[in-house]
Amino acid sequence: MTSKSSNRPIRLATSRQGLSRATSRARSIKLGGVAVWAESEEQLTDGIDDLCESIARCTKVHLSMTKAVLRKIVRDHRSESEIEDRLFSAVLGYVLRRGELDATVCASENDRAFRVLIHASRLDGFDQALIAAETLLRKERIIEVPRLERIIFGERSYNTWSSTAHVLGRLSYLGLGKMGDRGTCRLVEDVPC
Predict the structure, then answer these.
(1) How far apart are CA 81 and CA 76, in angstroms?
(2) pTM
């Protein structure tokens, strides 16, 4: 599948019945076990390419983001298209399998694991943010998101607080820190055996 920039509506569905009009030229492809349908082979290829490009473009702007935030941003970016959850998930899986995005696991304040998505071009930046956060955490024993956010990003913009929390959540998941309320992370000093 090739990458073409386009503002044409994405006309894909996860069932043949979901197509806007029935046609004998309808085609489908399986992405991660989900059948993705379009009214023609060209519409199928173009729609998947356009959605892949939108996912990659929207992710690349941020250090990290959750799937729910990415889905919202992609839907806002492609407001002329209806992108159902199953379709988004199938194409997101395809983009992950192609290696354009990566996922990592973080821990929340409640020690619940969750995944964040990182564009391949931002992996080094995420690793550098982890190193900076770990160094500061070991030195000061507690970090608050706004302080680390200034170190990582300079000034605040959309999603930088969340990306900073993801960095601390990753340290928490790795057992180096413990996420607390209101965006704090404390150094774990006694690691249980």
Answers:
(1) 9
(2) 0.89
